[in-house]
């Protein structure tokens, strides 16, 4: 299972892969990427940046603001080592990519991954959620009095997982549709043939009068 720190570092590298950013803009984009359920604080971001600076994954430059104050800002950019690390991590489709936080980050950068990697992650995530659903359904039988609020929370959680499973199924079908080869240029797609109506009798083609007319072979010349 990927740690929260590792997931955050992957998200930082993915954003810096697009363009260099200063701390305020980087935090703003990370919050947009991770969603409103997890607001990232500077107390989490800057220690992560320090670790990545020490590992050589990112570098910092000083830029002068164009505003009235003209104060200097530190701008972070990804290094070649960071690009290589990001490329290696983003193609990992193992079980850690199916977990909640790591999956959301991987999905945000799906446009940079190959189709087979996307499918393995989507199918792995769906399988992981299906396991949760199976366990939740097995635990439905109460062994004692059940608080109605606990029951409502359980129902809400189950329905949320069911919705995500349906969403993942739609995504998987869409990805597989993209992988189907298109017909070559100049080859028309055969039009679908409607089946005969239910109960209708189909009659074989009968020979016409012209086809029944006897044709004598030519005589000797």
From TrEMBL:
Entry-linked InterPro entries? Metal_resp_DNA-bind_regulator (IPR052509), Tscrpt_reg_PadR_N (IPR005149), WH-like_DNA-bd_sf (IPR036388), WH_DNA-bd_sf (IPR036390)
Give start and end of each Transcription regulator PadR N-terminal domain: 12-87
Coiled-coil positions? none
What the entry lists under SUPFAM superfamilies is as follows: Winged helix' DNA-binding domain
Renumbered to this chain, the Pro residues biased-composition regions fall at 181-195
Signal peptide (residue range): none
Q: Where is this region: Disordered?
A: 176-221
Task: Point to the regions of Basic residues compositional bias.
Answer: 200-212
Protein's UniProt keywords contain DNA-binding: yes
Top-level taxon: Bacteria
Q: Which UniProt keywords apply?
A: DNA-binding
Q: Which GO terms describe its molecular function?
A: DNA binding
Q: Which PANTHER family match?
A: CONSERVED PROTEIN (PTHR33169:SF26), PADR-FAMILY TRANSCRIPTIONAL REGULATOR (PTHR33169)
Q: What is this protein called?
A: DNA-binding transcriptional regulator, PadR family
Q: Which organism is it from?
A: Nocardioides scoriae
């Amino acid at each position: 299972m990927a740690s929260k720190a590792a997931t955050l570092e992957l998200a930082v590298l993915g954003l810096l892969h697009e363009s260099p950013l200063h701390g305020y803009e980087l935090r703003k984009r990370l919050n947009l990427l991770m969603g409103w359920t997890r607001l990232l604080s500077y107390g989490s971001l800057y220690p992560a940046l320090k670790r990545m600076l020490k590992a050589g994954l990112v570098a910092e430059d000083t830029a002068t603001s164009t505003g009235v104050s003209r104060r200097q800002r530190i701008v972070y950019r990804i290094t070649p080592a960071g690009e290589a690390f990001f490329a290696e991590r983003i193609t990992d489709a193992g079980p850690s990519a199916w977990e909640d936080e790591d999956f959301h980050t991987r999905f945000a950068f799906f446009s940079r991954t190959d189709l087979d990697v996307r499918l393995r992650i989507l199918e792995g995530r769906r399988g992981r959620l299906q396991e949760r659903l199976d366990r939740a359904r097995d635990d439905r039988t109460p062994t004692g009095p059940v608080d109605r609020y606990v029951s409502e929370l359980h129902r809400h959680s189950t329905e949320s997982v069911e919705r995500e499973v349906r969403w993942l199924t739609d995504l998987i079908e869409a990805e597989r549709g993209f992988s189907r080869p298109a017909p070559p240029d100049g080859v028309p797609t055969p039009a679908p043939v409607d089946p005969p109506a239910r109960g209708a009798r189909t009659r074989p083609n009968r020979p016409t009068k012209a086809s029944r007319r006897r044709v004598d072979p030519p005589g000797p010349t």
